Amino acid sequence: MGMCDIIPGVSGGTIALITGIYERLISAIGSISVAPVSALIRGRREEAVEAIARIDPVFLAILLSGIGIGLLAMSRIVLSLLDTAPALTYAFFFGLILASSVLIAYRIEQWDAVIATVWVALGLAAGYLVGGLGQSGLGHSLPVLFVTGFIALCAMILPGVSGAYLTLVMNQYEYLLSAIARIDVLPLAVYMAGGAAGIISMSRVLKVVLRTYHTQSLAFLTGLMLGSTRMMYDRIVAAGGTVSSVFVPCAAGVLLVLLFELALRHFSACGMNPRT
Fold first, then answer.
1. Do 124 and 224 contact (CB within 8 A), yes or no?
2. Mind listing the pLDDT tens digit for each residue in 79-110?
3. CA dihedral 138, 140, 145, 148 (to 10 degrees)
4. CA distances from 267 to 3, 96, 160, 253 (A)
5. For residues 29-67, b (16+ Cβ closer than 10 Å) or e, as one string?
6. How far out from the chain centre does Cα 205 lie?
């Protein structure tokens, strides 16, 4: 999950789904509250132990350790690629985001042509406008990092949306990669604090929105991701990329997402569960 969370267009949540831990992860996150502390203050030790058990602390500790190692290893690789072959790397990201947007559209269960078309168009317009903004003006202040974490880590709740993709939209991607590689604690702590606030406060809201407005939500996300490929295109051109030179890495990005999707379907069909 950590290695995939570094790559825009690939969601660590997809890996959680493939390995069968997604529901356990969401359940553990949803159980995080002040209940254990509150119970201890009132002297109710057994109640506190039960509340802690619901958080599944051993599972979360092991998972977060693996994610941390994956983030650290992959951040150095991606930074090196962006430094030595930026056009090819951004082309790879372009393919990832393009394929991911198509797969999000594929997850729309009840396709209403009119509603879907309207929301895809709205998302496309929003993504295109965001992709053309001068994000460099945002800077890398602690409040911006907090908001980025709040938005990006909420992506864990959304189907197929990559947190790294959202940090790219917020122009914090390379800055955070460098912070991870250097183990720069302060910006990473602020980013994670924003993410924790986002997941805890928005997980239930996002679930309700996805359940109530399923078609509209996924159609808008499809358009948003397609529109924001403008940003990748601009970066490829700025790095001197040509159609012939970037075709292969772009196709590789598409292929990688398709392989993840095939793996997800295979494991879902087999009904594999890591607890068994």
1. yes
2. 999 899 999 999 998 998 888 888 888 877 77
3. 40
4. 20, 21, 16, 21
5. bebbeebbeebeeeeeeeebeebbebbbeeebeebeeeb
6. 17
The pLDDT tens digits for 11-37 are: 777 777 667 787 788 778 777 777 888
Q: Which two tokens stand for residue 77?
A: 């690789």
DSSP 213-250: SHHHHHHHHHHHHHHHHHHHHHHHHHTT--HHHHHHHH
Closest among 173, 180, 120 to 151, alpha carbons compared: 173
pTM, full prediction: 0.75
Q: Comparing C-alpha atoms, which of 215, 253, 219, 230 is closest to residue 88?
A: 253
Measured N-to-C along each axis, helices 243-270 and 86-106 cross at an angle, to the nearest 10 degrees, of 40
Burial-class residue 83 by CB neighbours within 10 Å (0-12, 13-18, 19+).
Answer: exposed
